[in-house]
Amino acid sequence: MNPVMTAAVTVSDEAAARVAELALRGEYERMVEQALRIPGLRRLRITLAPAYDAGDDPRVLLDAICDGAYEDAAGSAETAYGAWKVRTFLPEVSRHFCLLTAYE
Amino acid sequence: MQGRGFLVAGRRLAAAPTEGDWRGAVMVAYYALFLECREALRRWGKVFPRQANVHHAVRTYFTYATESALKDIGDTLERLGQLRSKASYEESPQPPFAGGTSVRAVRQATDTIARLDAIEADPVRRAAAIASLPP
């Protein structure tokens, strides 16, 4: 398992309120901790993404902004995070959260 | 045209020089995978009510499947769906579209369609996948 990185984490008021509304604080904290293990992570920005036309609930979106030197491993980092998430949490929990990576 | 037909346009757009191209690549990557997933569900006997939001319905089938392979496909569909929403609706400059995000989105759609094909081609895996879907 990768070590936990020291990275700036920002959480929007809307995202925090959504986590509280869902009563999923513990699960959310585990997802954030797992995100902090993404190689090359610089910043983690957590917001509430509107559903737009997807016909679903808004998502708590974890945008992991990472060092561009790690981009070659980007696809595997997202896939590994997703695999961990869907095997760790029930769909009723995991469906409310989504992690995306971006590299700079 | 099958959903995967969008992948050719996706590769072309991902290699093009502007943010509009990159956003377009992300959009078609999502639709390529979404359409392939929808058609797989139809072949597997699922019917989508006319009034249902089919994006939500398709994602829900994969998310709530008990087979890990389908859950993984659902997770990729979710991620590409969130990227598509950013690409389609958020007008402010989006850091995710600078760099390789669009290339990666097209690659993930391509790889995930291949995983779906592998399930379809194997009678045992196909039967297990169908059995693992929610009603």
What separation lies between the terminal Cα atoms of chain B? 28 Å
Overall, the morphology of chain A is globular
Briefly note the structural class of the backbone of chain A: alpha/beta
The total of beta strands of chain B comes to 0
- Termini of chain A, distance in Å? 24 Å
Order of helices and strands of chain A: EHHEEHHE
The percent of residues in helical segments of chain A reads 25-40%
**What can be said about the biggest beta sheet of chain A?**
4 strands, mixed
Low-pLDDT stretches of chain B are none
Helix content bin of chain B: over 70%
Strand order of the largest sheet of chain A: 1-2-3-4
Estimated radius of gyration of chain B: 15 Å
Q: How much of the polypeptide of chain A forms β-strand, as a percent range? A: 25-35%
Question: How would you characterize this protein structure?
Answer:
The complex is a heterodimer of chains A (104) and B (135). Chain A has 104 residues and is α/β, with parallel strands linked by helices. Chain A contains four helices and four strands. Chain A starts with 7 loop residues before the first strand and ends with a strand. The mean pLDDT of chain A is 91. In chain B, helix 2 crosses helix 3. The two termini of chain B are 28 Å apart. Chain A binds chain B through residues 49-50, 52-56, 59, 61, 63, 65, 68, 71, 74-75, 78-79, 82-83, 85-87, 91, 94-95, 98-100, 102-104, and chain B through 52-53, 55-57, 59, 63-64, 68, 71-72, 74-76, 78-79, 81-83, 85-86, 88-89, 95-96, 98-101, 104, 107-108.
List keywords for this structure.
heterodimer, A: alpha/beta, globular, B: about 140 residues, elongated
Produce a short descriptive summary.
The complex is a heterodimer of chains A (104) and B (135). Chain A has 104 residues and is of the alpha/beta class. Chain A has 4 helices and 4 strands.
